[in-house]
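for the record, two folds in this file. i put them one after another cuz i was lazy. first one right below, seq on top, structure tokens after. the second one comes after a little note so u can tell where it starts
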Amino acid sequence: MLNTSSASLSFNIKSILVGATAAIASLSMALPAVADDFPSRPLNMVVGFGTGGSADRMARMMSGPISEELGVPVQVTNRPGAGTQVASNYVLNVPDDGYTVYASTFAPYLTNSILTGDAEFSVDDFSYINFQWFDLDLIAANKDSGYEDLPSLLEAIREEEGQVRGAVVQGSAGHLMVRLLLDEAGIPQDNLNLVTYNSGGEARSAVAGGQVDFVSISAQGSEGIREFLTPLAIVSDERIEQWDALPINEALAPMNLEVPVLQGSMRGFAVTSEMERQHPERFEKISSAIQSALARKDVQEQLERNEMGGVWVGPERSNELMRENYQVFEKYAHLLN
């Protein structure tokens, strides 16, 4: 009897241990790992434009501080083309593991690649971590072009078919504003020789070098070519301190014209929405790293020296702003087709 009870007891203990082990294993499979060593290798920061533009300068400026906060290198890669559609597709097709961060001027380029570029993605396919740099658009002529105000430029486009050359970044707010101006003034779109570029740096170089007569582009990123420009209008309801230019509808008053004041650029960082869904703890680490970097005095001083924005609005507000931008541009997207 004693031997039988001992054997039974031994069997029961073994059964309990086996069952407990199986339960623990099952639980560990069902729950995400508590400890995540992310990031354990370098991150790739993909820029939706070529080198030299505002988004590229922002990414390269921020990559160092973000790297320091995360404790791993952050490599910057430029993938320009098709109004950021090339970069967007790339980011959406790499693993959703948090090792790829998208740096771009999301509004209006991402919006317009969806509305006019037949993109196969939506604004909701991305999760926007932070928009740190907001900008108004500037319409400015090359100082040697002879154009001193916006009405004279528009009348030249009306009267000198194909002779006036303008520069814009493909799908930008500046691009749409030029189309809107011609539409409201009753000027055929084909009258303007409009050259589109993949980066702000290229468009600015074109107007500074006299390859085009005027540019419609973000104002803050244009400080470096100020000496080559005659400002014609700022796309705003009021004057701004940085540029001696009339608000656009004030500039158009002599022509009895008025246009919608389009929201300018919103630059910042994002990941895929699937990455946030699968790895919320990694999303939080990246968000915290960007927020901490922007909170540093040395980073703010460097951003200010380079005339870049550096605010923290956070994921919730950034996603709201992106959807609001989409709704506004959807109304006028037909002009870019």
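(here's the note) second protein begins now
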Amino acid sequence: MASARISTFKTAPASDTKLFDDHRFRALLSDEDWGRLPVAIWRRFSKRFEDGNTVVYVGEVEEASSSRAGWWLAQAARLIGGPLPTGTEIGVPMIVTVTEDAASGGQIWTRICARRDGFPQVIHSAKRFAGPSGLEEYVGFGVSMALRIAVEHEALVFHSVGYSLRLGPFRMQLPEWLTPGDLTVTHSDLGCGDFRFTLEIIHPRFGRLIRQSAVFREASS
């Protein structure tokens, strides 16, 4: 595992895409917690594009690690679309796109992680503002996780609080032994337009399985 800070990014000029005030994430936090966020994060999660439009973030993987159990978990997850990072290369480009989904009122996320050898890994997921926690992320084949958001050390943190499987109109809560453990995604501001996204999965028995961190900047909107 290694770490390196990105100092510069190549960015594209912003377009004339129309923006709206977005209260979807704000509604999931108390006034006190929302007020503890840095202004840059507040602005990033308070803008909404027109349905179908996309914002693009460009970055670089600065840290990546996986235990043996984490590697097997990532490989097994490919059966439902590959929602977990399968590599541990650092210093490789990563691109994240967020598209407004008119059908669900949520967002479609695509993560593209380059590899020095072979094709890049592409991860798709969809966030929907629904469920018992008010936010769910669908990762493929009807599998989803409920997310709870919190403010920790001036960062916006997403915690998994349960996994489920949807089959047509039916939803089944997955037992703990069929889940990877606690998944946490942290969005922390670095200043000057840069921010860090960190994904970490910790299993109650096997400990930390996967950790990946990348630094981004908005490229276009």
